[in-house]
């Protein structure tokens, strides 16, 4: 898999984990996962920009 695909996969996993944490009212974990998702989204955006520039 490409790096971008790996990042999207990790984002999908983190989203599921965040939903599960929210269902159990574990708001501290939700906050941690949300920060992780933010970093993943930044990386995805960066990779997308690089890929678009290469076209």
Structural class: mainly alpha
Q: Please mark out the parts with pLDDT under 50 across 5 or more consecutive residues, or reply none.
A: none
Task: Compute the number of helices.
Answer: 2
Describe the biggest sheet? none
Mean pLDDT: 92
Shape: elongated
Distance between the termini: 20 Å
Order of helices and strands: HH
Q: What amount of the residues lies in strands?
A: under 5%
Share in helix: over 70%
What's the structural blueprint in terms of helices and strands?
Elements: H1 3-23, H2 27-54
Helix pairs in contact: 1-2
Short account of what is shown:
This protein is an all-alpha fold and 55 residues long. The chain has helices at 3-23, 27-54.
Write a concise keyword list for the protein shown above.
single chain; 55 residues; mainly alpha; 2 helices; 0% strand
């Amino acid at each position: 898999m490409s790096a971008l695909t790996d990042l999207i996969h990790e984002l999908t996993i983190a989203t599921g984990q965040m939903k599960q944490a929210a269902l159990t009212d574990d708001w501290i974990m939700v906050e941690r996962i949300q920060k992780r998702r933010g970093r993943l989204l930044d990386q995805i955006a960066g990779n997308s920009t690089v890929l678009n520039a290469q076209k």
